[in-house]
Write a structure and sequence with these properties.
227 residues; Rossmann fold; 6 helices; 33% helix; globular; binds guanosine-5'-diphosphate; binds magnesium ion; Small_GTP-bd; P-loop_NTPase; GTPase activity
Amino acid sequence: MSHEVIADKSLATQDHLFKLIIIGDTGVGKSCLMKRVMDNEFKAEHQVTIGVEFGSFGLRVDGKVLKLQIWDTAGQESFKSVTRIFYRGAHCVFLTYDVTREETFVNLLEWLKEIKQHASEDVRVYLIGNKSEMEDQREVTFQRALEFAKEYKLHKVFETSAKTGYNVEEVFAMVAKELYMQSKREAEAAQSANHTAPQDSGKQGGVTLGETSGTKGGKKGKKGGCC
Ligand SMILES: Nc1nc2c(ncn2[C@@H]2O[C@H](COP(=O)(O)OP(=O)(O)O)[C@@H](O)[C@H]2O)c(=O)[nH]1
Ligand SMILES: [Mg+2]
């Protein structure tokens, strides 16, 4: 499915809005990923994020405007109580690590606990290994990330480089499209359930438009992007 990135950052109107939260240890490149996708820029110096910063990324797909609302969180332990609030209502999580620092990969287990405790049960978790252009300093192989994702049932795995831009726009665009397709499927399922229900037994149809319906892995799907 082709797409066109919408340059207008104000993006006052959109057909679908999806919330994405970026988490992971400090210094892995969360803020740089957001800066790259929003402004196509990279900053070499590390400015510690205080609490949470907010951005957005817009896309036109299928004649519809999709907007990703991006919440870039601080990685430090001291900010966790603040950032936890932002897991609520997130459609997806970018769980990030630095491919050149193994400790940031090991710490993913702690971040998974945060997701389990504070995000909704059916949130999509994408594993993102950043700084992929630093091949000579790599400490975590892609294979290891794939195995981790399989073991913990994460949705997908990618490597990116906020520095070169490798895979950044592609990943954000793909996620927006996946969320859009999911919300479309859910709306269609809800609609057909509404149409067929009265013929069944005269009982109330169990699914209301915009409510959950079964999706991948037998889990309940979440509310589609709001309009
Ligand atoms: N080589 C390289 N450095 C990066 C990349 N992404 C971020 N950095 C650097 O890593 C440091 C931390 O980045 P930042 O986005 O502030 O990390 P955050 O704490 O996770 O938000 C900064 O010095 C960035 O310049 C990348 O893809 N490649
Ligand atoms: Mg940051």
